[in-house]
Amino acid sequence: MTKPIALAIKWVLIAAAVVGAFVIATKLAEAGNTLAVVLAGMVGLGILAIYATRRGVPLKYLAPGVLLMILFQLWPVVYTANLSFTNYGDGHLYSKEESVTDIVAQSVREVPGAPRYKMSVAVKERASVETADLILLLTDPAGATFVGDTSGLKPLAPEGVTKAPSGKILTAPGYTLLTARQVNARSADLSKIAVPTSDGGGIKPVGLSEAFEGKPTMSYDAATDRITDSSTTPPTVYAPADARWTNVANPSQTLPQGWKEGVGLANYTRIFTDSTLREGFVSIFLWNLFFAIFSVLSTFLLGMLIALLFNDPRLRFKGVYRSLLILPYALPIFVTALVWKGMFNQDYGIINQLTGLNVDWLGTDLGAKTAILLTNLWLGFPYMFIVCTGALQSIPQDVREAATIDGANAFRTLRSIIMPLLLVAVGPLLLASFAFNFNNFGLIFLLTKGGPFNGADTSIGSSDLLITYAYRLAFSGSAPNYGFAAAVSVIIFIIVALMSIPGFRRTKALEEIN
Amino acid sequence: MSSVNAPVPADPRLEKRLESETHEQPTPPSPGRRGLGGHVWWRHLLGILALVWALFPILFIYSAATNPSGTLNTASLLPSGFSTVNFQALFNDESRPYWTWYKNSMIVSTIGALGAVFVGACAAFAFSRLRFKGRRPGMMFLLLTTFFPALLAIVAMYIIFAGIGDVLPAFGLNTLAGLILAYLGGALGANVWLLKGYFDTVPRELDEAAIVDGASHVRIFFTMTLRLVMPILVTVFMLVFVGLYGEFMLASIFLTDVDTQTLGVGLYGMTLGNEANTLFGRFTAGALLASLPVMVLYLAFQRQLVGGLTTGSVK
Q1: What phi and psi values does residue B23 have, to the nearest 5 degrees?
Q2: What rounded mean pLDDT belongs to chain A?
Q3: Does domain B12-21+96-276+289-309 have CATH number 3.40.250.10?
Q4: A-chain residues near B72 (CB < 8 A)
Q5: What range(s) does the ABC transmembrane type-1 domain occupy (chain A) (predicted)?
């Protein structure tokens, strides 16, 4: 029988989960996301149905993991596939309505004689001054202080705020103020900021320490779906075309704010038809394949040789050797890869110092690839050593003795007896290692970031793997293109799937599951 | 977890075999070979060569961390004296809260690993002990998911968690809770095969006896099975802990505020830009300390880990 205490715990947990789902559903409803509300409600009801009844015992055990897997592994994959058919990315981040709002706020022009604000540029406390969203700290001529960002203008409580005699804010609690040099470095971001005000106008920065409030010159007519710029004579009219607002009179001129829309297979056709991209993609793929194969073979060979070396019952201190040899594998990759990066430094690194060479390891095509392969050999051989040690111990002694009696020498025994048996045992692990190395993002990113970038297309690095290439498309560079990056990811998915089929077939796991 | 090292579980029987075999069993020396004991010196010689290859970068980390000048250009392979200058500089750097990173890494790895073990053990119990429709396809599907690293869907993950942050700020980007959730998504596929293989070794007669005694499935799972499979739970905990501790990619995208960063992201930031040379001593000091938890775990639980490694994560 179930104890009362266990029963109580069960019902408290069920109640907590249902209440949690309800709270999330309410918040989603506030945010206006109907579909998500329905999903949250279904999850809540599902929990109730699974755990409050006596039926469906397996589901009770599978539900937590499956729910997490669906939410954070499968859904992202589906989402990625979806994204790959859109133009989502820099300049196409928002809906069409949002692009209109932004264009109108950006078009604010100073009304002559209107007062100016003293402005300081800040980021949230402890956020990165190089990348975080910029925030304007403003002082109006009367001395009142405000905080403004692209979402709007809010008053800033004067407590803890210090101001220069001019009224410019010097410090404010909760914000890190940028120095003039830092502001200058982000002037491109600064020029894009427009703080919408409640009366339909906006506040925009002038220079590095002042801002003005003014009226918009752009207006949107929903009936004709046109944006009109009244600051020019005659007024310029923009019409939607290709997910951007395009000047009707001069189609080559577009506004920077576009919107997100479906583009069908355009991202895929671009990969296969744009010749620079296609050649880059092919060269990345070939290097990716070579890297994965070479890494598996080199680490396996070294690991196996060391395992064979220690596979002698007479040898002492094997435990000590093993503990020390495992260390490269035991250290976190961010430590080892970054230290190797330091060691490969051309001017100061100890690799050049010790060998007397003066190789630009990370700056040349060949150097970077060699450095990566060397580092991965160092990182990976302990794993293969351990695996091979285990497999070698499983080879019965009498098989070897039989070979010796038949007159086989040591090399012949190794080649014809030990190697085949070893490969049977570690084969699946070699495939797994290949699959891992094929997408070994951490090593490449930490060591070379895919560089150096010497080719015809500077977005393609000579030591890039497909996955680091997709990452760079999405997350760095001046114009992230999420849709295109997603298309590249989908292609990697397909490649991995195609390559894993043979391994999958061979895995005996397919044959029987008890 | 699958975003870290996509471990591909192999045949559970192989697993068991390797695991039992890597626990070094004393092999009795064959009688004919006795008396040749003097001929292993060359093995030691090559062994020491292998040690030199394996350990010189680690010696370099130590030398650079204790190097009083603390820059990359003055770092050498052999220690040039012992100094704690770099450690002091690291601990007193206001803009780089090292101990906060340390704490964050510990929180993420511990909670993430505990969660993964729990979720995995529940599912493994169902797959091993219960019979239901879709059991075999379910196992195969989990195996399939391990072939695809979650980080391929990283753009979508970023957008999804940005959306979650709008509704539930406690689980959005820049939060440890959000990062842990993201890691837990891959927990099932990565560990269930390893766990199920071990669950299968627990005799079913025990379950049947307990059922006859009137125990419910909940009671069997929590009070009996979980205790019997403790060794594999420890192994999986270690593997996931080490994997999450070293995870870098998702963390670097999720955690942009200095105070929420983990060791990997924080230390990586120290090797960027113009300051990389001057910060090198501090970086290696931090790297050395950051390596300690995993190093200790590896050495203390070598047997379990080696057993798990032969089928588990791949580097």
Answers
A1: -75, 105
A2: 83
A3: no
A4: 342, 345, 348-349
A5: 285-503
